[in-house]
Every structure is written in C-alpha cells, then in structure tokens.
Amino acid sequence: MKAILAAAAGALLATAAQAAPAPIERINPPGPDGKPALILKGVIVPAGYETFYLSGQLADPIDPAKRTTVEDFGDTKTQTLSVLKKIKALLAEKGYAMSDVVKMQAFLAADPKTGKIDFMGFNDAFKSEFGSATQPNTVARSTFQVANLVQPMFLVELEVTAVKAK
C-alpha cells in the first residue's frame, strides 16, 4: 500500500511540475527616472515553454487599392501600428498574445521626405502595445537603421519571438 501511495504521490508531483513551468524572467532594471525601462536588458525563458518565431512583417497599405508610395503606407508611426496589428493577429491565430512576445528586432528605413528614421514615431507606436497599462510586459529589443527595406515604400519591418507555457 505504501508503494502505491508513493507512486501516486510521485506521479502527482510530476504532473504538477509539468503543468506550471518556472516563470519567464524579464530583466528590467529601472530607467533614469526610476520607472521600469521601456526595453528589457534580457529575457530568460526556462524549460517548459513553446517558442513562436515570426518572420519580419511589413505594413499593410492604408488603402488596399493603392500600394506603390510611402504615402500609401503612411509614416513610420502609422506603419509600425499596422505591423503591430498584423503581428497581433498572427499571434492570436496560434493562441499567443502580445504579452507573450519576449524579443523584437526592428528595422527602420529613412523616410524619403526627411532622409532620417523617425525613431520617436516608432517608439510612440511601440508603446501602444508594450509597457502600457493594458499590457505591461515589454521585450528585449534591437533596433537597426537600414539603408532600405525590400521596397522603397516600407519604412518599418518587425520580427518577434513569442513564448508560452506548453
């Protein structure tokens, strides 16, 4: 009888351990103002998580009938919001949420009107989905200025990695 109880207890403990992996560690020291930084220093994902790697996503045109100029896709902030909306939908299709994103790589091209990237516009759009009151998680992120993207009308390309418990 003791052997049966011991085996049952062991099976129960093993099942409990599988049901709840250790939490994701988001390394986020305070920023210069004492508040959590907008971008994580790093993320540690322990065993027990499934990983979803999304390829780089580009903005959708504002008007699907027009898709040849930057104006058809909008400025950096508009394009970033479009890409984040697309990413959110792709994640949802597989049962993930924006709060599951742990890593982002952002590629920004200069706006042909100014010849410069609009980093502030990008960050404004980024803050609509990360580190907000409704979605407090933020991500480890790298942002790159690139000469151009696949087509001259694109100013933003984002790729993300999301994780969730198995």
TrEMBL record:
Gene3D superfamilies: RutC-like
Domain of life: Bacteria
Extent of the signal sequence: 1-19
Keyword tRNA-binding among UniProt keywords: no
GO CC field: cytosol
Keywords attached to this entry: Endonuclease, Hydrolase, Nuclease, Signal
SUPFAM superfamilies with a match to the protein in the record: YjgF-like
UniProt cross-references to InterPro entries, sorted A to Z: RutC-like_sf, YjgF/YER057c/UK114
GO molecular function: deaminase activity; endonuclease activity
Classification via PANTHER family: 2-IMINOBUTANOATE/2-IMINOPROPANOATE DEAMINASE RIDA, ENDORIBONUCLEASE
Name of the featured protein: Endonuclease
